Automatic annotation (TrEMBL):
<feature type="signal peptide">
    <location>
        <begin position="1"/>
        <end position="20"/>
    </location>
</feature>
<protein>
    <recommendedName>
        <fullName>DUF4232 domain-containing protein</fullName>
    </recommendedName>
</protein>
<dbReference type="Pfam" id="PF14016">
    <property type="entry name" value="DUF4232"/>
</dbReference>
<feature type="domain" description="DUF4232">
    <location>
        <begin position="88"/>
        <end position="210"/>
    </location>
</feature>
<dbReference type="InterPro" id="IPR025326">
    <property type="entry name" value="DUF4232"/>
</dbReference>
<feature type="region of interest" description="Disordered">
    <location>
        <begin position="24"/>
        <end position="81"/>
    </location>
</feature>
<feature type="compositionally biased region" description="Low complexity">
    <location>
        <begin position="28"/>
        <end position="79"/>
    </location>
</feature>
<keyword id="KW-0732">Signal</keyword>
Length: 220
């Protein structure tokens, strides 16, 4: 083998080694592409934060608090037609007394609502005899306050007053005074009526509760 040929073979071998040495460099070039895919996967991670940031939307769709609910409408006023009807007092009525039976000194008592609003005639009238002490005793039962007679303006109620037969124990009076039962401490101005020759027996005088008509008031 000539010297020139040996030199050529040696040069070819060196060139081959040089090419082999350059191989890793080309493989290393793949490194950046790998880092690119890594960065892509890294860039994919924000999608997780995006979905995380979407979770607050649940609070937006949550049910509103009770405070946000519309206010309850006020309770309407009472529909009971009697809720503002008060007991009649002497300031609400006029009063008359008329002789019904001379033998027993019985009088028909009548009151009439002179006002502009309805009132209730409660219980028995409170009747005093002229300058005599005490008042007429109550005869018969009276309805409760819820069932008491309702007097519209201009309407009347009646009661029967009996002084009693002349038994020698009583006195004769010429007038009586009346106040109304109001179940309160309301101070009333007594209403007076003339009752000429009314004989008042101390143990037989009496007055009925208020009635809707004169017949019932005098028959009890």
């Amino acid at each position: 083998m000539s010297t020139a040929l040996k030199a050529a073979i040696a040069l070819a071998a060196v060139s081959a080694l040089a090419l082999t040495a350059c191989g890793p460099t080309e493989d290393g070039a793949a490194g950046p592409s790998g880092s690119g895919s890594a960065s892509a996967s890294a860039s994919g991670s924000p999608s997780t934060s995006t979905s995380a940031s979407a979770s607050p939307s649940k609070s937006a769709s949550a049910k509103p608090s009770k405070s946000a609910s519309p206010a309850t409408s006020p309770t309407p006023g009472s529909t009971d037609p009697d809720y503002d009807v008060f007991p009649c007092s002497t300031f609400d009525v006029t009063f008359t007394a008329s002789l019904a039976e001379p033998t027993t000194s019985s009088y028909l008592l009548k009151i009439t609502n002179k006002g502009t609003k309805a009132c209730r005639a409660l219980g028995h009238p409170v009747v005093t005899f002229g300058d005599l002490d005490g008042q007429a005793t109550e005869r018969g039962a009276a309805p409760g306050i819820d069932d008491a007679i309702r007097l519209e303006p201009g309407q009347s109620a009646y009661a029967g007053l009996m002084g009693g037969a002349k038994d020698g124990k009583g006195k004769t009076v010429n007038s009586i005074a009346l106040t109304m039962s109001t179940e309160s401490d309301l101070k009333q101005t007594p209403l007076k009526a003339s009752t000429p020759g009314l004989y008042v027996s101390p143990d037989k005088n009496s007055v009925t509760a208020w009635m809707n008509n004169a017949e019932d008031a005098l028959s009890l």
